[in-house]
From TrEMBL:
Pfam families reported for this sequence: DUF1996 (PF09362)
Organism encoding this protein: Clathrospora elynae
Protein name per the record: WSC domain-containing protein
Record-annotated DUF1996 domain positions: 36-281
Signal listed as a keyword: yes
Signal peptide: 1-20
Keywords, sorted A to Z: Signal
Domain of life from the UniProt record: Eukaryota
Length: 485
């Protein structure tokens, strides 16, 4: 086994730079509620969320409220920030809906890309993703970053590429993070994703340097032109830590059951996946961590700033929302129940979804979801491949093969729609010869096997696999340095 130092050196050689980071585990959610004080302040949110972090969380939460939390579900006891995303649900053929089991809470990565990073200021909050989106405007799969055009680097395009759905199977080579920007079909997950789906979301990190929030919760922030790295747009030169959320959902628990997976905002495609962040950090503590937590392991245990204030998983797991909202007492967001929490309709697209209504009381007459047999989606196959990268770790993950969307004809039932849904346009993948073999690491990902968490740093390379055929592949490095859960 290589040491952490030698492994990090190998990764630095691949990437051309040392990208420090730490991951903040939040072992359990503090609630599954229709709460979103950023988008729907002062009222019940239009849809349910899985919420992690500081316990003093409600309809009108402020920075001061989070700092006054009795506890946090995150490992560092003074990280009182709030992290939340939509929850994933399974809608059975008859319309009965239940939560998909969530595995291990949430991992929030603090990636320290860029120079002169500043801590999130007091009162800072932001949003990533678009809850109403039901399509993807770019080529599938993503071309290599060396081939990106101006169209790839618009804020709209970068935002769409900032999310991903990683098919987990710990008996196979792992998929790279943010390769697939949509939720796979249930048939694909039944066949390939024995350990579930990991939902991933990258937040923008370029700040205008003055506003801690904005009317749309996005205008004060921008993505750098490579999403996680690269250059910031003019007027947004101040770099903040790059947040990256990971949540794992046990979709395999519904293997061979008739129905469909749907996010709590009524999105069966995944294109409308999104996340919210409200800082609850002591600013001086976070600034010290940004400057000090550069151990390549990414473990909070390996940063002196967090020493003496780390919680066990059991301590994290008992933290829950302090004050349950009476207005939401009739909600049943976990199910089983008819329909989605908040009476949310399922909207397929590819057109932009209708806005959802905030403020509805729980217990109202529910909408039984009308499901087509499957959301109309492209197919990106699980295709791990051998790599010729010269190192002792070896292995590789290929760019996925893409097939056109397929909408099978369903047997007529009361819960199935009669008409098929129009398919989004698919752009052919970029040619392998367009790739740049000197590109650096393009993403990080993690997976667990035999109780050990591995980190994967992924780099694009080109391999000629036959005399007359080329395929673009991804080399990856494994870090087995995190310890047992």
């Amino acid at each position: 086994m290589k040491s952490v130092a030698s492994l990090s050196a190998a990764v630095a050689v691949l990437s051309g730079t040392t990208n420090a980071f730490w991951r903040m585990p939040c072992h359990d959610r503090i609630g599954l509620e229709r709460l979103d004080p950023i988008v729907d302040p002062g009222t019940a949110s239009s849809h349910g969320h899985t919420i992690h972090g500081g316990s003093n969380f409600g309809m009108s939460t402020t920075y001061e409220d989070l700092r006054a939390s009795d506890c946090t579900s995150c490992q560092f006891s003074d990280d009182k920030s709030a992290y939340w995303t939509p929850s994933l649900h399974f809608v059975h053929d008859g319309g009965m809906t239940e939560i998909v089991p969530q595995i291990g809470g949430m991992l929030s990565y603090y990636l320290l890309y860029g120079d002169n990073l500043k801590a999130f200021p007091e009162g800072f909050q932001m949003l990533a993703g678009d809850t109403r989106l039901r399509n993807f405007s770019g080529p599938v799969p993503d071309p290599p970053t060396s081939s990106w055009t101006a169209d790839d680097m618009t804020q709209v395009s970068l935002g769409q590429k900032s999310l991903g759905f990683n098919c987990l199977n710990y008996n196979k080579q792992p998929e790279g993070s943010r390769y697939r920007h949509f939720l796979p079909t249930k048939e694909f997950m039944d066949e390939n994703c024995a350990n579930g789906i990991r939902a991933e979301l990258m937040f923008p990190s370029c700040w205008n340097g003055k506003d801690v929030k904005s009317d749309d919760n996005k205008a004060h922030m921008r993505y750098p032109d490579m999403i996680d790295g690269g250059s910031c747009p003019e007027g947004f030169e101040t770099r903040l830590p790059t947040l990256f959320y990971e949540t794992i959902w046990n979709t395999f628990a519904f293997k061979d059951k008739a129905g469909q997976f749907v996010w709590s905002n009524g999105d069966p495609t995944g294109y409308g996946y999104h996340g919210d962040f409200m800082s609850g950090w002591n600013v001086d503590t976070l600034q010290s961590a940004v400057s000090t937590c550069t151990n390549p392991s990414g473990r909070v245990e390996d940063c002196p700033v967090f020493a003496g204030s780390l919680q066990t998983e059991a301590e994290q797991g008992v933290c829950k929302i302090q004050n349950v909202m009476k207005a939401l007492s009739a909600d049943n967001c976990s199910g089983p129940t008819d329909g989605l929490c908040g009476n949310v309709p399922v909207q397929y697209g590819p057109q932009y979804a209708n806005p959802l209504k905030a403020g509805a009381q729980g217990g109202e007459a529910v909408i039984t979801p009308i499901l087509s047999s499957v959301a109309s989606m492209p197919t990106q196959s699980y295709a791990p491949a051998h790599s010729k990268v010269v190192d002792s770790y070896g292995g590789g993950v290929s760019v996925f093969n893409v097939k056109p969307p397929v909408v099978p004809i369903a047997k007529p039932t009361p819960a199935l729609a009669e008409a098929a849904v129009a398919a989004p346009a698919i752009t052919p993948p970029a040619k392998a010869e367009d790739a740049n073999p000197d590109d650096g690491i393009i993403s990080h990902t993690t997976y667990t096997r035999d109780g050990v968490v591995y980190e994967v740093a992924i780099k694009e390379v080109i391999n000629i696999v036959t005399v007359d055929s080329k395929r673009r592949r991804h080399a990856h490095q494994h870090r087995r340095n995190i310890g047992r859960n």
